[in-house]
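Q&A log
Question type: sequence-to-structure
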Amino acid sequence: MWKRKYKCLIYLPLATSLLLLLNSSPGIGSEVSLTLIYSSNTLGEIESGCCPETGNAGGLARRSHTIKAVGKEAKNRLILDVGDTFAIGPTGNEKEREKARKRAEFILKIYERMGYDAINIGDTDLVLGVDYLKTLSKKSKIPFLSANLREKKTGQPVFEPYRIKEINGLKIGIIGLLTPQLPPYLHKEMTGYFIEDPIKVALNMVNGPMSHCDYIIAQAHLNMMEIDELAGKVPRISIIIGGNDRSFIFPKQIHSSLWAQTDAFGLHIGRMNLRLKKGAKGFVDALPGKSSRVSDTGGVNTYENHLILLHPGMESDLEIEKLISSSRDILKRPLP
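Response status: OK
Response body:
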């Protein structure tokens, strides 16, 4: 009798654990809602109207208010920046570079308040110095990603190559990629570092440490030809958020991946409402008026994309506005 009771005491916790595991993992065809918020090419812009190209649109205070508003209605949220976050271009001398670095630290502080999940390293960010970015990343609450920016001595990535987030039982992989096509003024910043072929690195990652992911999002600071090649040769990448060429792209299917990106100077922020099904392939646009009908999608994922212009009529995050107003002395734009 005691043996039977002893066996029950062993099996009952095991059965309970198994039941909890099964309930927490989505089965084939079950649906998970995820709101993806994405940005790129902020280029060190903090306020609206600071650059002729922006008019009076943009600004991190408006972006912060928008992200907070989305957070109130979206249970599952992922906030990503694709790169060229911190700087607009090369500085004239070391004094001006120090100004740019202080500005970058301030931007990072606001990004932390906005709740970003990852920042990809863009080529223009490198003007601050790779060693400086390494130091900044160690102080940051947000992971800096770059799978193919490597140290020459060791061949190891300078920053985290990827992150995996679990959302309602789905494993979402996020990989950071950087174009090797650097402008000449950045060559001096690469002493001790090199940029490996992003396609080769992406293949190694998605077929290796990221192979158990249900979906993979590439933060791809690549040119358009590189993005097309990435989608063609690495079909396991589900969504590509681009940005190197500084123009917005409404979501479109390339090969088996969905590709979208925002424009420059923080004028817009992207919001993509995703309904992901475990084991599903491909995406269908679920916005009203689109030709595809959601009821006919079966085992296909759906998305609704909104490219949000941060216009002057929008509300701003007052806390961020106060923070900016109290920090004018460190926000002077560095001279080229």
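Response note: Residues 1-24 have pLDDT under 50 and may be disordered.
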